[in-house]
Amino acid sequence: MRGFKFLFLLFCILLNYSTALSERKIYAVVLISGKMIVGADNSLSGLFISSDDGNFWIHKGWGNIKATSIAIEPNSKGEVLYLTAGNGVLKSTDRGETWRIMTDWRVTEVLRVVIHPENKNEIFIATPYGVFKSVDSGWSWEEKNDGIKPEETGTTSSTFVSSIVIDRGNPSRILIGTEDGIYESLNRGERWKALALKGIGIRVLVQSPHNSDVLFAGTESDGIFKSSDGGKSWKKVNDGLTSLTIYTIAFDPKNDKVIYSAGFKTGICVSNDGGETWKCSEKGLDGFNSIHSIAVHPDKPNFIVIGTIDGGVFISADGGKTWRHSGLKGAIVWTVHIE
Length: 339
Known about the structure:
The protein is mainly beta. It has one helix at 2-22; strands at 26-33, 46-50, 58-60, 67-72, 81-85, 88-92, 100-101, 112-115, 123-127, 130-134, 142-143, 161-166, 174-178, 181-185, 193-196, 202-207, 215-219, 224-227, 235-236, 246-251, 259-263, 268-271, 279-281, 291-296, 304-308, 313-316, 324-327, 331-338.
């Protein structure tokens, strides 16, 4: 009898654990599809959500948009979503069923959206024209480009911003990746100053979830840079990379030594030594070796989702050793996210 009770209790625990994992959703943000028809409501662009580990996808909201990134309001359980696109920032308060455009004609071609961890009403977006900030949950926006150098004859513009990182160790400090290196603000975006990698086009800037002093920057043509002192100094870490154009970098949530990167014709690259060296492979990707986004499952580190250029979504359940095509074939998937 005791054995039966124990087995029943164990079954309930495992059932609850499995259910908890399955409640995670995968978000795929599609920029454009090879099947896109101008002027039509295209089903292969915009936001797609999967609730079953990528086996089935549901399109949510507007279709004929060039979507680029997503942010989910903390503690909203997926109800409040911000989606960036060519026409600005869209917001949903009902899990993506309906959307409202939150920006006007002055704010377009938005590349990234980030919600401040200390204040859900404070939102930052990256655009080719610099940084914009909202303090009222997206209802109004203010340009925050003080200190960011505009394009001049013979110079590189730093107003083209691709990435935003809010420092977990100091939430008043914000870093941005620009076409002219990395810039820093110590007062939540009110004023910027050049920090590092001047003259280098940054495509992705990320902070380690294990150590806030560790940062990585993926670039257009110089590979990957790593900082271990909060961005004061940087070094190239390109050993093993098959291409120097890097669009995405992601971390194993459990193991600080395991890091993933990818970009133009790289396949998926894995580091097992904290980003010092890399091993890249295209095996199982059906020739779609250009990857724009990587997401690692927070609870199951071996479960990895990638968004490819023209190949849709691929998923691995064994840490990247094997891959299966998960759908959205023909789509340029700009961002994948697991929440």
